[in-house]
Specification:
alpha+beta, three-stranded antiparallel beta sheet, 10% strand
Length: 407
């Protein structure tokens, strides 16, 4: 699984050690200065792929139309670049995430018609009340896992509410997504999780057709701009919203918490001025991008990166976690600074595929940390920071657990 180009740093991007300390490894790759091929995993499939680690190239490529996400040729490129050519690659219906203009433009516009800033802002009082109800359950001074009780719980409830998913089914998606994101789960386990998720969403969509509500799924069914979403597009878009809508927000909350717990000066700054919260959320996102790598792309045309020519039909991954700590863009990039002036992180992507849920994620982060600051004057890690473990995932950057005490 090591880099496949002679002379490249001997770094295994799918190793446990990499998952625990990606920043040190990415620093070596950036210092090497050459874009190289590595083995990367997406869902059940290990691929030979080019990995871009520096900020300037990453930002440019995120908006470069020569890098395509069109689903059918993408699947062909994945098959051609698979480490194991005999492995079956799951076929996924078209969504705005895996399409190029004009289809992407149409799909994003239709989702944007129902997933509006007005709808997001209307959720604010409800999210504030929900956050309060979760914090009401915390016993002051008692150890608890912040990942389980707050960081994961809140976004799952929020996206479930938005999509109109019954409360008893929302944790199913967490289980399915954990399997899909795991480096250790087998291909068979991942195919099963993928199948179960799509089967349930098919049932949900059928129910919303019979019993319309005030949720996003009903809105996508009834929107009329540019015609209707096809059944497959509706299914894929709902799946995308369910999975993208909670995991990254959850990881932003937990990694932001551990950053504050290990930087007392920054926590005190925030206590003294809650107006610094928006900037703090941006710094949480920059320091530990919830997505390790941007979602998969392939070269529809050859691309020249420095001395390296990437031919058409190759897989490319853009390492957001690395780009956000590139010293060429962010001075002293490993320093946590909630007043950092040099913003422009790539955690929500860039270009036409910029995350449509970014305003909701930012709102949730500001509400959660604002409420935590108001309600608890003492924050403590309940375990040594060295004992914290990060998820063994090729896609996500998030803590497995965060034992804390608040009082």
């Amino acid at each position: 699984m090591n880099s496949t180009t002679a002379g490249a740093p001997d770094i295994d991007l799918l190793s446990w050690g990499f998952a625990q300390d990606p920043h040190g490894h990415y620093a070596l790759l950036r210092a090497d200065g050459t874009v190289r091929r590595h083995v990367v995993q997406t869902l059940a499939t290990q691929l030979n792929a080019w990995v871009v680690t520096d900020y300037q190239q990453a930002r440019a490529l995120l908006a470069d139309p020569r890098l395509s996400k069109e689903i059918e040729p993408l699947l062909d490129a994945m098959t051609a670049n698979a480490v194991d050519p005999t492995q079956t690659i799951a076929r996924t219906p078209r969504s705005m995430l895996f399409s190029d203009p004009p289809d992407h433009t149409r799909l994003r516009r239709m989702l944007g018609d129902v997933f509006t800033m007005r709808r997001v802002e209307r959720l604010r009082p409800w999210i504030e009340d929900l956050t309060d109800s979760l914090l009401d359950q915390i016993v002051p001074g008692e150890e608890f896992d912040l990942v389980e009780r707050l960081a994961m719980a809140l976004p799952i409830l929020v996206i479930g509410q938005l999509l109109g998913i019954p409360p008893e089914r929302r944790h199913d998606f967490r289980d399915w997504n954990a399997t899909l994101a795991s480096v250790q789960a087998t291909a068979a386990q991942k195919r099963e999780a993928h199948g179960r998720a799509f089967a349930y969403l098919g049932e949900l969509i059928a129910q919303k057709r019979r019993e319309p509500g005030e949720d996003l799924v009903t809105g996508m069914i009834t929107t009329r701009r540019d015609g209707n979403l096809t059944d497959d597009e509706l299914l894929a878009t709902t799946y995308l919203m369910m999975n993208a809508g909670y995991e990254t927000t959850a990881h932003m909350i937990s990694s932001g918490m551990v950053a504050l717990l290990t930087h007392a000066d920054q926590l005190e700054l925030l206590r003294g001025d809650h107006g610094l919260l928006p900037g703090a959320v941006e710094e949480f996102l920059r320091l530990e991008s919830p997505l390790n790598m941007a979602t998969i792309r392939f070269t529809a045309q050859p691309v020249q990166l420095g001395d390296v020519r990437i031919e058409a039909g190759e897989i490319v991954f853009i390492a957001l976690l690395s780009a956000n700590r590139d010293p060429a863009r962010f001075p002293d990039p490993d320093r946590f600074d909630i007043q950092r002036r040099n913003r422009g992180h790539l955690s929500f992507g860039h270009g036409i595929h910029h995350c449509i849920g970014a305003p909701l994620a930012r709102m949730e982060g500001e509400i959660v940390f604002g409420r935590l600051l108001e309600r608890f004057s003492t924050w403590e890690l309940a375990v040594p920071v060295e004992s914290l473990q990060w998820k063994f995932s090729a896609q996500f950057r998030g803590l497995e657990a965060l034992p804390v005490r608040l009082s």
